[in-house]
Amino acid sequence: MNPLTERFNKQVDQIAVSLIRQFDERVSGIEGILKLTLGEPDFNTPEHIKDAGKQAINDNFSHYSGMAGLPDVREAAAYFVKEKYGLTYDAQKEILVTVGVTEAISASLLAILEAGDKVLLPAPIYPGYEPVITLAGAQAVYMDTSDNGFVLSPEMLRETLVKEGPAVKAVILNYPSNPTGVTYSREEVQALAEVLKEYPVFVISDEVYSELSYDQEHVSLAEYLPDQTILLNGLSKSHAMTGWRIGFIFAPQDLTAEIIKVHQYLVTAATTISQKAAVEALVQGIEDGAKMGEEYRVRRDFVYEKLKQFGFEVAKPSGAFYLFGKIPAGQIQDSMAFCVDLAEKNQLAVIPGIAFGKAGEGYIRISYAASREALAEAMKRLENYLQKQPNQ
User: Taking every annotated instance into account, which residue ranges of this chain make up the domain Aminotransferase class I/classII large (predicted)?
Assistant: First the structure.
């Protein structure tokens, strides 16, 4: 072993590649595998957005933008959240363009956290937050929502804030949720905001799936808690632009001025060509996500009904493109062992619930960002597996 490995930041020893990616790589080599694993839209980026990217190349937008991003993309982002969610942000002082929401998470958390701080997260939750919290020397504190339909209640939030005390520096919310697809109503958002405004904490609201909300209009926490909220969003899910790597941070001017320092040293600035494509997505493509959402809704309903028929307990998701089902009695209850066995015996890959924390154990996450034909075949394979039959 290289002796220099002993000189790494010791916090790196406390993190690992996410179980989502580990599992996906583990099963990818299985012949005939059908994967419903990663959170990747199966749609292509709309043609008009691709054309804007091509035009940007032809127009030689191949140089650095300013750290915060091009002025026109920040204006477009301000327009988008105003039109969609009634939010008002100063485009030049309160919006940062990031390299996807992943970088937005890192820049925000590294800007606010110090050693010894605590961060509250409802669980189960996307596993991309805790490693950054750990790298900052802070501690993640989970609030298990599995007995509450995967919805964080104001009572649960207040109880945890009181219990953990002044060490709590931030609360992270992610809705519509990865992995459950559950989201919050206007009344639920308002109730959480009423609790949070009583405490001097940052609230990082990751709303990247906001455009994929099927049964009700998405309500941003920033509407009710603008002074404390660091709002994260992006184009990966809404516009099928995962590879373009465009995210956004929306926050009050004094918070943005601090976060941009970290953002600069992480990435300098987002890709200029992608930013020009983002302008097209946010303005001319403002309804692109809704069009994709119509198809996702059909897929959700199909997979949801099948899982119920198969004996899974599953909260019907109102957004994103995931279903989170409790493994039926009589089957392997260890979620990792269940998913490995399913992949090896019936060539179907879904993500084990343990990837989303201890509160996810005993569950599986299915991504329905796949064609109807693929989903029909997947449900056939899942049913055969549950009945101890090979693929037919």
Answer: 33-382
